[in-house]
Amino acid sequence: MNDWNFQNLNDQELESLMQAGASSLPPDDNLVEEITPWRRAMKRALLGIALNLVTLNFWGLNYLFPAIGTLLLLIGFRALRRENRGFALCWYLALVQATIRYVCLILNASVWQEELYRLPWMQPLPYVLTLVSFVQVLGLRTGFRAARRKAGLDPAAPGTTALVVWYLIMCIAALVNYTGILGWILIIAYFIILRTLWKLPRQLEEAGYAIELAPVRISDFGLGAWISAVVVVGIACCCLFASGYDMDWTPVPEGEQAGLEELREELLELGFPEAVLNDLTPEDLTACKGALRIVVEQDDYAVNEGRSVIREENGHRVHTREYDVNELRITGVAVELPGDRERWRIIHHFEWVIDPGFHGTESMQFWPTYHLAEGWSKGSEATGRVLYDRDGVTYTAPYHYLGEQNYQSTSMFWGTQQNHDLFAAFSFPYKGQRQRGYVAYDTLENEEGYIIDSWINYTHQNRWFQYPAQTAMENRMRGSWNLSGAFSLVQTAIQFNPNDPADFSDYGYTTVTE
């Protein structure tokens, strides 16, 4: 019998062979343990339950472990589903778990995931999964008791009862957000319970317990491959087709700024950059009427990785990073307007002078002057738009989102903070030239002596794949800088003292280049 290739037998053939007996000697205990269908199915189910209850929030294991665990539950309980009602219940619950988990795995690759999870019918999903897992543990206990009773053993299965109690305590601890020493005790208890459960299948076999596995139409490997393929294809589709915002692009009307030629000339004479002026809507252009002074601050920034340079300085090797290409041009324009109180219109304009490749979402976070200094207050709501050129036609669209957001961020330096900032969120088409846009707002003087200090934090998405997916705006809200891989951050500001004549030239404007 030792010459048999047991690995090539399917479960039904092996079970029939074991039940009918063979004239030759049986294989050794290690081989029986490896190929016994009942023990193999049961241990897969137990390992699946273990992985579903493990939460490790690093290296993507919080997604990988439950995904593998759910597959093991499906394979394990699929083979045992006809043995008794307890195992049948576990099988049906494994189907529910698989449906929820694998659909969520696919949705996690879409930038719409957070909005989807906020839908009323999606919000109970975590509680549904918790309830399903708990009932599945009860079903496991019922199934083991029935199997032990059938084998002529004491139906009590201490390991399964302990797992039920353990799960109840864990749920209560999670509800009250407990973080004390009990958590470590529960972890130790969990491994002890798993060790006890791992011995139960062998005890049943030693008592002469045997089952006929339920027939299946597709092999275990085939089932795993099919589910994996569906999840991978679903994630790829989300990365390609659900990675950006729906933008309402329309051609810019010819002569959009018609009738405002005189105002344009006045602003150009004061030093308003023509490239920025051309992108303003008629409303934003009119808002600059009567300009007294103009301050411009412009620079180009890199979003590429650059190149490492090593040079010798004073006998030391100095490592620096240099950038041969600067793709993003950011221009800050401050326009002083007439009025009883000093009033400035701040315009933050950006333009991609080199196409970096657009893979999903973009965002701008603003720290307006009135948020940073008590000497200024908010003068108007923010306005603006985005534009790009293609085949000689200029297209424009409103921002997907433009407004102020209350949010919470966490960083290693400042801990958890409550924030209130101005954001603009948008997406560009994959084809086009001169992708650009601007945001404008008014600020009013409350007290003399405060500088104009208005910041823009531009977040650009560098690549298609990120998991779980997040938008550039969400990335910035979480306090990320250049450490998240999928995004790059460019930060700059327009800063000057409006009360210092040295900041202005004889022509009524100054251009400052960092």
Description:
The protein is of the alpha+beta class and 514 residues long. It has 15 helices and 16 strands. The chain has helices spanning 11-20, 29-35, 37-52, 61-80, 85-107, 113-117, 125-150, 158-175, 182-206, 220-241, 261-270, 274-279, 282-286, 369-372, 472-477, and strands spanning 250-251, 293-301, 307-313, 316-322, 328-337, 343-352, 362-367, 376-378, 383-390, 393-397, 401-411, 415-426, 433-445, 452-461, 487-496, 509-513. The strands form three sheets. Strands 1, 2, 5, 6, 8, 9, 10, 13 and 16 form a nine-stranded mixed β-sheet that branches. It has a five-stranded antiparallel β-sheet with strand order 11-12-7-14-15. The chain has a two-stranded antiparallel sheet with strand order 3-4. A hairpin with a 2-residue loop joins strand 9 and strand 10. The longest helix is centred in the first third of the chain and has 26 residues, at 125-150. It is elongated and about 100 Å long. The chain starts with 10 loop residues before the first helix and ends with a strand. 32% of the residues are buried. Residues 1-8, 21-35 and 504-514 have low confidence and may be disordered.
